[in-house]
């Protein structure tokens, strides 16, 4: 896909890149510091792309001003409250409108705007080697820059006494309560072999390796996650204990303990960045439960780490998870609960505050029903 525009009387074009699959704007105008926020917002709402040629910091200010107008419009149409479907629709509209403010990256991934930072390293980490000039939404580029900062400084994990460094597009373990559940739950009597299914950054695999597992196999279907997990193991000196494999769900064989922290919300992700949050029709959850028994050694356990926020949002009934467990030929041998510590759980301005405040994250200890 390409983006097309006219500039200085010349018709131009460049490849279009969007991590969330947003199509390029059909109509594009070149803008700079002289455009007013109201005018930019009106054009963006109508689907007109705004190719920025002004000052980088002014572009960021314009994006914030457009965002305020999006939020005001959403609040007016929302009324007294909102359900999750309305929340998702608002997020999609926000992404669409803000995605209309576009910048052009040069052939070396540099951003040639006044006062622009050096974004080459961040873009190379997210996109790989540059194929040539490319246009991206400024909103996406800011996410790429932010992810590079997280990758550089790391995310502290108290259970490890160290930091992990998630790359772009890899779910970051900023919510430490689910990590603490795995760090504190009693291990099966014998757990020489552990599978961590859907490992992400590898944080749970690393925690279990540090707890004394003889061998850990961590899997993920995402190549970016596999790269991040391998870097985590190298940084923690766990290369010889943890194998990271790129595969869908289970590795070959059986384990004494199989751990999975699947996406918590049933629903369609709108981008690759949301794959760690949304699980269409609870597909990963269903397949994990359905295949767990066949991958457990006799006397082994499966640990399912899952938030009940989907219940509070009306996306899953309280009984549905128990039914899925039973239908998979499993039973609950124990359960450990914790409550969230993240800031949104105590923010009444958050549109999903009630659900976040009531949320409980649980570690479900599962064993074959026949045992």
From TrEMBL:
Keywords: Methyltransferase, Transferase. This is Class I SAM-dependent methyltransferase. GO terms for molecular function: methyltransferase activity. Pfam families: MTS. Residues 188-307 form the Methyltransferase small domain. InterPro entries: DNA_methylase_N6_adenine_CS (IPR002052), N5-glutamine_MTase (IPR050320), SAM-dependent_MTases_sf (IPR029063), Small_mtfrase_dom (IPR007848). Residues 1-23 are annotated as: Disordered. The keyword Magnesium does not apply. Gene3D superfamilies: Vaccinia Virus protein VP39 (3.40.50.150). Residues 1-11 have a biased composition (Basic and acidic residues). It comes from Janibacter alittae. One of its GO terms (biological process) is methylation.
């Amino acid at each position: 896909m390409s983006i097309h525009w006219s500039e200085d009387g010349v018709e131009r074009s460049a490849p279009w890149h969007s991590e969330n699959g947003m199509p390029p704007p059909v109509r594009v105008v070149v803008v700079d510091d002289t455009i007013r926020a109201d005018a930019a917002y009106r054009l963006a709402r109508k689907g007109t792309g705004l190719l920025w040629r002004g000052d980088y910091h002014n572009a960021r200010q314009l994006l914030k001003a457009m965002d305020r107008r999006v939020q005001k419009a959403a609040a007016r149409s929302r009324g007294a409250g909102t359900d999750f479907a309305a929340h998702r629709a608002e997020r999609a509209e926000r992404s669409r409108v803000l995605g209309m403010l576009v910048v052009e990256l040069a052939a070396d991934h540099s951003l040639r705007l006044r006062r622009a930072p050096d974004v080459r390293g961040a873009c190379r980490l997210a996109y790989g080697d540059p194929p040539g000039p490319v246009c991206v939404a400024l909103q996406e580029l800011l996410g790429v820059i932010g992810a590079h900062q997280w990758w550089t400084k790391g995310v502290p994990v108290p259970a490890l006494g160290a930091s992990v460094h998630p790359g772009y597009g890899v779910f970051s373990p900023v919510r430490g309560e689910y990590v603490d559940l795995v760090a504190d739950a009693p291990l099966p009597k014998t757990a020489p072999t552990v599978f961590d299914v859907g490992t992400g950054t590898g944080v749970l695999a690393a925690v279990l390796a540090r707890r004394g597992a003889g061998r850990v196999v961590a899997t993920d279907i995402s190549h970016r996650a596999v790269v991040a997990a391998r870097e985590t193991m190298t940084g923690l000196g766990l290369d010889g204990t943890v194998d990271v494999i790129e595969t869908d769900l289970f590795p070959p064989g059986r384990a004494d303990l199989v751990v999975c922290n699947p996406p918590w919300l049933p629903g369609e992700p709108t981008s690759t960045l949301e794959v760690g949050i949304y699980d269409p029709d609870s597909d990963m959850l269903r397949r994990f439960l359905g295949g767990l028994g066949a991958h457990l050694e006799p006397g082994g356990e499966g640990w399912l780490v899952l938030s009940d926020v989907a219940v509070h949002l009306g996306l899953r009934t309280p009984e549905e998870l128990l039914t899925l467990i039973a239908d998979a030929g499993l039973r609950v041998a124990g359960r450990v609960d914790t409550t969230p510590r993240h800031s949104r759980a105590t923010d009444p301005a958050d549109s999903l505050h009630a659900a976040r405040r009531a949320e409980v994250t649980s570690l479900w200890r599962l064993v074959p029903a026949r045992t």
